[in-house]
Amino acid sequence: MPSLHRPEETTIHTLASRLRRLPPSCGPVRLVGVDGHAGSGKSTFAGQLAHALGGAPVLRLDDIASHDELFEWTGRLLAQVIRPLGRGESARYAPYDWHARAFGPPRDLPAAPVVLIEGVGAGRRALRPYLAALLWMELPHEESWTRGRRRDGEEQREFWAGWVRAERRHFAEDPSRPFADLLVRQLEKGYEVLPGPAKTFGPDQSLTHGDGPTAVC
After folding, report:
1. Does the residue 217 lie in any domain?
2. 54 near 108, Cβ under 8 Å?
3. Are 117 and 128 in contact (CB under 8 A)?
4. Is 173 a domain residue?
5. Residue 108 DSSP code
6. Segments forming the whole domain that contains residue 25
């Protein structure tokens, strides 16, 4: 029987199948974090993975963070999202509007079998106990930030200057990559998924823990 997916789709559908088979990590939910530097492609990848999972809900940390709390949002996330999901209930949170600089109307997040959390800080230490898996977008910070600046344009130049300082400080104090189960590298078509430093998935391979491209030994 011919394949139902194009070759570049195979990896992401295989990953989706593996994630479905993980034990629940937050009540009945398999909570999967997608972390990486700003501009590394987290949102695009999470959207494609959610589609491969049959429409899994995605919580974007851009909706949780704000101008005043770029990374100081852990308490709100735990209260509004993690604890309800842990009880098997739908979460309810107010997404932040970056243009209006205000939180908008509440939005529901169902306690689905798999829920994705994507954004810088999705693998922070306060969240890792609730994650079934942590995925890290494998793109060096300077390349990620260059892509992000190009995407957001000149009008966001001042914001990016402050963001880079905040992100450097965050990952210096609370790194995610050393705890990633899998590393995701974007290719010209599709993605490559490699075992991460945490080595929860796949064969036992030695990987660098630096910020640059992965070295597989």
Report:
1. no
2. no
3. no
4. yes
5. E
6. 7-195
Residue type, 195: P
Answer for the pair 40, 34: CB distance below 8 angstroms, yes or no: no
What CATH number is given to the structural domain containing 139? 3.40.50.300
Helix boundaries (H) for 21-60 = 42-52
For the stretch 155-173, pLDDT in tens is 667 777 788 899 999 999 9
Instruction: Give a yes or no: residue 216 inside a domain.
Output: no
Distance CA 112, CA 89 (A): 9
Residue with tokens 């993975």: 49
Residues whose CB falls within 8 Å of the CB of residue 53, separated by 6 or more in sequence, listed in order: 16, 19, 20, 114, 116
pTM metric for this prediction: 0.86
Q: 61 near 120, Cβ under 8 Å?
A: yes
Residue 208 domain flag: no
Q: Report pLDDT digits (tens) over 96-144.
A: 999 899 999 999 999 999 999 999 999 999 999 999 999 999 988 878 7
* Site of tokens 């689905």: 112
Count of domains for the chain: 1
- pLDDT at residue 149 tops 80: no
Q: Where are the beta strands (DSSP E) in 110-165?
A: 114-118, 133-137
Specify the 3-state DSSP secondary structure of 2: coil
Nearest to 123 by CA among 53, 22, 197: 197
* Tokens (6 digits) for 136: 């890290």
Look at residues 73, 95, 93 and name the one whose alpha carbon lies nearest to residue 85: 93
